[in-house]
Amino acid sequence: MDYIVFLVAMAALIYGADFIIKESERIALHFNISHFVIGATLIAFGTSLPEMAASMMASYQDKTDMAVANVVGSVIFNITLVLGIVFMIAKSMNPKRDLFFKDSAWVILPVVILYIMLQDGVIGRFDALLFLLMMVSYLFFLFSDSKEELEGEIDEDLEKAKFNWGKSALLLGIGFCLTLGGADFVVESGTNIARSLHVSEWAIGLFLISLGTSLPELVVSIVAVRKGNAEMSIGNIIGSNVANFSMVLGGSALIHPLNINLHATSYDFLILGAASVALLFILANKIYNKAGGIFLLTILALFIEHSL
Questions:
Q1: Burial letters for 48-84: b for 16+ Cβ neighbours within 10 Å, e otherwise?
Q2: What is the DSSP letter of 162?
Q3: Got the DSSP string for 178-215?
Q4: Mean pLDDT, the chain, as a whole number?
Q5: Does residue 252 surpass a pLDDT of 90?
Q6: Which of 157-161, 212-216, 243-247 has the lowest mean pLDDT?
Q7: Which of 83, 106, 241, 281 is least enclosed by beta carbons within 10 angstroms?
Q8: What pLDDT is attached to residue 230?
Q9: What is the pLDDT of residue 54?
């Protein structure tokens, strides 16, 4: 029964996030907010809503292992699985934006800050405030660098649709209910599954929950590939990962300090660092092709092989 509840709750979590993302786009477009800001904030941060809901709910229930593992696993899957698939199926990628020069700091900086915070084995409320401050810095960066618009990330149907406050408010309400309710049941059923299989809450968060909550990023990236805007998915993943560290991990630690067993989880944090460095290498050398995809998927295979 827990497995069924987990799957239904995960679906509710993802569909709820989708409602929120689309209605947020609609409201932003109604107020003539630039396409760049919509794409780089609402889409990237919006696809992190499932991770945020799941981790914050886990933190609220004092299941800190699950909260942290969800973030670590989601960032690993975003880089290795999502971008790995994008590079494998994209016909050609020639971004006009110098992704390494402009965005590489946001790939590695959150990981470095996390490693420093982990030295005492806990992410406390002061650390949480620093993470949230990092998000504010990222938003300032996006607004100051908004000359290039990411038009390919916006749903064209939303631009043509007539705006209706009542409908948007209703769908936003439904989205938040599905997301929060789904997160509650995902954490609860995930915990029961962990106990029945005699595995740790860390393992459940690292694989089942993080893989499920990474589905929005995967869907958005595949849609971008089909529209011929595969390079936009790189910006989406960078933004989503910043949101995972700042909003998700920071918000969870603000609710309840997060204790981490560094000895038991060292390999997972090593893979997190390796995936981030691999993405930096790809950005620096512009390896936006099947070779880059195989490189990232190999890291994913090592991650899965060691953890199973």
A1: bbbbbbbbbbbbebebbbbbbbbbbbbbbbbbbbbbb
A2: P
A3: HHHHHHHHHHHHHHHHHHHHT--HHHHIIIIIHHHHTH
A4: 81
A5: yes
A6: 157-161
A7: 281
A8: 60
A9: 83
**Looking up tokens 């590489």, which residue turns up?**
104
Instruction: Give SS3 for 122.
Output: strand
Distance (Å) of CA 129 to CA 110, 203, 204, 279: 13, 27, 27, 27
Q: Residue 258 has what pLDDT?
A: 93
Nearest to residue 119, comparing CAs of 274, 249, 266? 266
Which residues make Cβ contacts (< 8 Å) with residue 245, sequence separation at least 6? 71, 75, 110, 111, 113, 114, 131, 134
Percent composition of the chain: helix, strand, coil (DSSP 3-state, to 5): 80, 0, 15
- Residues 42, 28: contact at Cβ < 8 Å? yes
Q: What's the pLDDT tens digit per position in 68-80? A: 998 999 999 999 9
User: Which secondary-structure segment (H or E) carries 64?
Assistant: helix 64-77
Q: Give how far Cα 125 sits from Cα of 31, 48, 116, 149, Å.
A: 35, 21, 15, 35
Amino acid at 71: V
What is the spatial distance between Cα 252 and Cα 254, in angstroms, rounded to a whole number? Answer: 5
Please state, in angstroms and rounded to a whole number, the distance separating the CA atoms of residues 123 and 126: 8
The pLDDT of residue 34 is above 60: no
- To which H or E segment does residue 123 belong? strand 122-123
Highest mean pLDDT among 91-100, 186-195, 278-287: 278-287
How big is the chain, counted in residues?
Answer: 308
